[in-house]
Amino acid sequence: MNTHFLTGNELTQSQLIQLIDTAIEQKSQPQKFTQSLAGKSIVTLFEKPSLRTRLSLDVGIQRLGGHCVYLDEQNGQLGQRETIADYAKNLSCWCDAIVARVNHHATLQELAKHASVPVINSLCDQFHPCQALADSLTLVEHYGDVSGKALSYWGDGNNVARSLALYGCLLGMHVTLVTPAGHGLSATDIDQLNQAGIGSVKQVHDPEACVQSDVVYTDTWVSMGQQQSLDEVKATFMPYQVNAALIKRLGANAVMHCQPAHRDYEITSEVMDSDDSLCLKQAENRLFAQNALLHLLLNPKNTLTLQHAS
Fold it and tell me: Of 128, 162, 174, 295, which one is the catalytic site residue?
């Protein structure tokens, strides 16, 4: 079955819970999954530099008995040396899945249109669903039942914010996006997120409008590929910095950052290195969340049927 995972919207609430439960089982009983991807080869395609995504996929696929093939742009920018359609068709001749970290979501859509194997989004400009899977796993491990918990995201309304809000809402959390005016998600995005889950999503621009939060999450103020420097946007984003005073004011007991972090810009070292920080656990859980997704998608004994999403 050719099933793509491009936006994260392909998962229902029950499937997200199934995936989290599978990841937890893989962590506690790894011996049960050592042959889950035996005989399968998976291409990991990178247009963007990576540490956590590249290593977690490479090591994770090996732990499941599969073979990981890393491709970057050494042979030329994707779509220039040959069309993306031809690229996808050729990769489909040899591999069992394509996991792609790309600059533009349209590239994923083109890959999926022509590939005869599953295409999985490991990051694009609009979505970061694999990170959101790892974040969801981390939150469930930390709290157990997360429904009703308040999560606030501080900073740029980017791909991470969109995917985090989606799965937070699916799990019944109350998500507040605290973003500078002109740097948030659209009203249409917020409406769609609220329709997708059993929790809630709202967006505010005034930092003082967020008065309580169990979990505080932040990401870089300048996403990869943007032309501005951190110092150029510092005046706009500094009121949204995650620091000790904010954590105390909100009464939060968990802090998250998907990394790489620009310390003392979007988050202070004091907070990132504190006992409340879940940042390294998020990084660790990239492996287990992605492995659970690959196991459920590619193992013929499983029947994970994803919804269509473009």
Answer: 128
Our answer to whether residue 286 is catalytic in this structure is yes
Label residue 227 exposed, middle or buried (CB < 10 Å: 0-12, 13-18, 19+): exposed
Q: Which of 221, 256, 295 is nearest to 146 (CA)?
A: 256
Residue 263 among the catalytic residues: no
DSSP code for 66: -
**Does residue 270 surpass a pLDDT of 70?**
yes
Contact present, 181 and 205 (Cβ < 8 Å): yes
Say if CB 104 and CB 97 are below 8 A apart.
Answer: no
What single-letter DSSP state applies at residue 97?
E
Instruction: Let me know if 130 is a catalytic residue.
Output: no
From start to end of the chain, where are the E strands? 41-46, 67-71, 97-101, 119-123, 150-154, 174-178, 200-204, 215-218, 254-257
Question: What does the pLDDT look like over 72-95, one tens digit per residue?
Answer: 977 657 878 899 999 999 999 999
Catalytic pick among 54, 96, 125, 131: 131
Cβ–Cβ under 8 Å, residues 105 and 124: yes
Of the residues 4, 54, 101, 295, only one is catalytic, namely 101
- 157-171, 214-228, 238-252, 258-272: range with lowest mean pLDDT: 214-228
Please indicate whether residue 219 is annotated as part of the active site: yes
Tens of pLDDT, residue by residue over 37-65, are 999 999 999 998 899 999 999 999 999 99
